[in-house]
Structure formats: structure tokens, C-alpha cells
Design goal:
Elements lengths: L3 H9 L10 E2 L8 H14 L7 H14 L3 E5 L2 H11 L5 E5 L5 H7 L4 E5 L10 H7 L4 E7 L8 H11 L2 E5 L7 E2 L2 E2 L6 E5 L12 E5 L2 H11 L3 E2 L3 E2 L10 H32 L5 E3 L6 E2 L5 E5 L4 H10 L2 E2 L14 H4 L8 H9 E4 L9 H13 L3
Parallel strand pairs: 1-16, 3-4, 3-5, 5-6, 6-9
Antiparallel strand pairs: 2-10, 7-8, 7-14, 9-10, 11-12, 13-15, 15-17
Helix pairs in contact: 1-13, 2-9, 3-9, 4-5, 4-8, 9-13, 10-13
Bound molecules: pyridoxal-5'-phosphate (PLP).
Length: about 375
């Protein structure tokens, strides 16, 4: 490869990028190919492709054991898992969510004619600010969805207290937090339930997939019924439902990728350490740190850029074929339909709007090429310093 510093320097002045392949955020993590092929042969021979097959059952057992929860109900994706969880908890009226999250958290409510009410975040953690949540409660509020953003634990205890005081249901969108721990306990057992995503861009993927995890036996049973049209047995429908089933081939990918999780997280941890070193001392830049009480999956390398330089840096990185992203810009409340439905929501979302203008998420994962971190740091130094 070319000298990185020179390449970055030149590309800003119009030379070709240093990386011939684009470096994406959320490039899929892939476990052992032969192992996936073995599972595929097995399921071909078995001719059991979906409907709670043996691989789905094995994946559910392994995940619930890994996370220390009683139940894991695997689904076709995280959004359907959220929708089913919301329905199973009988949420109605208004539900409080952060605006600073992936749009699916809000859409899963709107899709079911429930109003997402956007609360603000703590700028230090990017997670829900309990004081803002309190302000958003009305007589129509039935629940709160906390998000463990970037895999950092939401303020679970404070949110539980608010939920208990006000008779609200509490659940968590744990799409970012697979295998993350807080105070030695894996995330997944809080609130009434937590929802995982196994989308291709997440640290652990089943191509597409997701799950509801919970310690509540009755809720788990309801969620299982709703995942499969409400069927109990072949001929009896006992519940309204939809089709949220995970196919066997997805569960096979999950079993393969579970084996590789330590390698995925180790690669992320190493990249994060490299970023810490490479970005040290860059002016106007903050790399989000981790609370020492957490065991992160390091899937999201999040930096905040001051002085309105964020977009210039993103453009300069993209010119280098480094496809860094402005997650979750501009915030759910400024996307449709919410932007038109609640045009003034931003007035109460000061921190969300400010953080959304400053964040860049950088590429990581086992497929990050040699030299990428130092090339990225060079762009930050060259473009960021111009402020
Ligand atoms: C990825 C994601 C989802 C949706 O999961 P899918 O499996 O893609 O449907 C929901 N919430 C958050 C915070 C996410 O990042």
C-alpha cells in the first residue's frame, strides 16, 4: 500500500483514494465458511427449513444461556421482534423513546398506531436522560422503550423507577448490545423484555434476524404464539399473530457466528485501542470512552467533532473510500412521518440535535484493513485542524 499519510494528503487535493475497496461501517462479520456449509448440508438432508426447527431451537438455547435469561424467542428480524414485544405488552396511546436511535425503534410503534414521544439524551452517554423521560409522561403514556445505544447500557435502574412510579411498561431495544455486560451481567434481562437484532451489520448476525429475550414465562409464551400466527398445535389459533419466524438457514449462520464471537469482539477491541492511540491529541475531537463497569462489544467506534467540522471530515473520509457515517443524523424526530407530525419536537431535544450534528461512526471489525486507522487519523488531523 501507498504511504498512508501522503495518500490521505493527496486525496484531499483530488488524488485517487488510498483504499481501492470501500471501507464500510457495519461490514458483516463472518464466521467459519465450512461450518456453515456443514449446517446447510444437514438442513438439506433434514428438509426442515423453518417453523421452529432444530437449529432455531439450538440457537435460542445457546443465546438464553449466554445472556443468562430464561427465554430467547428468535425472529426473522429485530424490527418484527420489537413490534411483537410492543404488541405482547399491550402498549397503546403514547410510548416514550429516544429520538437519537435507529428509526426502527420509532417506526415499530407508529406501525401499530402508537405515538412515539421523543425524549432527550444525556450528551455524555448518548443514552436516554431520565429527567427528560419524566417530562414526557402524559395520561396517555403506557410505556418506555430504552435503547442501549452503541452497546452502552441505558440507565436501567432510573428508567425502572420511573416506570414503576407511573405504572408504565418498560422494555429495551438492545439491538446494539449483544454480548455486552454491565457490572458483570450480560445485557438482556432488564425491563419486561429486551429486543435483539441480528442484522448483517450488527456484531453478531444471522444474515437478518432478531430475538425477544425475557425472564417472564407468560410473556415468552405470548411472544412465541404471536411469532407464528397465534398457532398452538396444528389446527388451533389461540392468539392474534403475525409471521416473525426465523428460518433454519439463519439459525445456522447464528450458530457459526456464535463460535466466532470472541474473535469478532477481540478484533473490535484491538481496533478501538488503535483508534484511541491514533486519535490522541487531535484537537476538537472526542472518542467516546467506555464505563469501566461495562464489558463492551466495541462494535461502534463513535467520535464527536466540534466546531461544525463534522461534515467536512465525513466528506474527506469518503473521498478516501472510508465510508464513515453520521449516525443517527438527523434524529428520528426530523425524519418522516415524525418531522411533519411533530414539527416542534426538536424544541425539547436540545442534546439530541447537538449530538446528531457532531457524531461520526468509524469502521471497525475483523475485516478492517491494515493501515485504515492511521489513514483515518491522518484525515482527522488534516481536515479537523483547519477549524
Ligand atoms: C438494527 C436496529 C434495529 C432493527 O433491527 P433489524 O434487525 O434491522 O430489523 C432496531 N433498533 C436499533 C437501535 C438498531 O440498531
Amino acid at each position: 500500500m501507498k504511504d498512508i499519510r501522503t495518500a490521505a494528503d493527496l486525496a484531499i487535493n483530488g488524488a485517487p483514494p488510498a483504499f481501492s475497496e470501500p471501507l464500510h461501517v457495519g461490514r458483516p462479520n463472518l464466521g467459519d465458511r465450512d461450518s456453515l456449509l456443514r449446517y446447510t448440508t444437514e438442513l438439506y438432508d433434514r428438509r426442515w427449513l423453518t417453523n421452529n426447527g432444530p437449529l432455531v431451537q439450538e440457537l435460542e438455547a445457546r443465546i438464553s444461556q449466554r445472556l443468562g435469561v430464561r427465554h430467547c424467542v428468535a425472529m426473522c428480524n429485530g424490527t418484527i421482534a420489537l413490534e411483537i414485544a410492543i404488541r405482547a405488552l399491550n402498549l397503546q396511546g403514547e410510548v416514550i423513546v429516544p429520538s437519537y436511535t435507529f428509526i426502527a425503534t420509532a417506526h415499530a410503534l407508529h406501525w401499530q398506531a402508537i405515538t412515539p414521544v421523543f425524549a432527550d439524551i444525556d450528551p455524555a452517554t448518548h443514552n436516554l436522560d431520565p429527567a427528560s423521560v419524566r417530562k414526557m409522561i402524559t395520561p396517555r403514556t403506557t410505556g418506555i422503550i430504552g435503547v442501549h445505544l452503541w452497546g452502552r447500557p441505558a440507565p436501567v435502574a432510573a428508567l425502572q423507577e420511573i416506570a414503576d412510579e407511573n405504572g408504565l411498561q418498560l422494555l429495551f431495544d438492545a439491538a446494539h448490545a449483544f454480548d455486552c455486560a454491565y457490572q458483570g451481567r450480560k445485557i438482556g434481562g432488564s425491563g419486561r423484555c429486551e429486543v435483539l437484532s441480528f442484522h448483517a451489520t450488527k456484531v453478531f448476525n444471522t444474515f437478518e434476524g432478531g430475538a425477544v429475550v425475557t425472564n417472564d414465562d407468560t410473556l415468552a409464551e405470548d411472544v412465541r404464539l404471536m411469532r407464528n400466527f397465534g398457532f398452538r398445535g396444528y389446527d388451533t389459533v389461540v392468539h392474534p399473530g403475525t409471521n416473525g419466524k426465523m428460518p433454519e438457514i439463519n439459525a445456522a449462520m447464528g450458530l457459526v457466528n456464535l463460535e466466532a464471537m470472541p474473535a469478532f469482539v477481540e478484533a473490535n477491541r484491538r481496533n478501538y485501542g488503535d483508534y484511541v492511540t491514533a486519535l490522541a491529541g487531535v484537537r476538537g475531537l472526542k472518542l467516546l470512552e467506555y464505563d469501566p463497569a461495562t464489558d463492551p462489544n466495541y462494535q461502534y467506534v463513535v467520535v464527536e467533532v466540534d466546531g461544525g467540522r463534522r461534515d467536512a471530515i465525513v466528506s474527506a473520509l469518503q473521498a478516501e473510500n472510508i465510508l464513515a457515517r453520521k449516525y443517527f443524523w438527523p434524529g428520528c424526530h426530523r425524519m418522516q412521518p415524525y418531522r411533519e407530525l411533530y414539527p416542534h419536537a426538536g424544541l425539547l431535544l436540545e442534546q439530541t440535535e447537538s449530538v446528531a450534528e457532531r457524531v461520526i461512526v468509524l469502521p471497525t471489525g475483523p475485516a478492517l484493513p491494515e493501515g485504515a486507522v492511521s489513514a483515518i487519523a491522518t484525515v482527522f488531523r488534516l481536515v479537523g485542524a483547519a477549524a
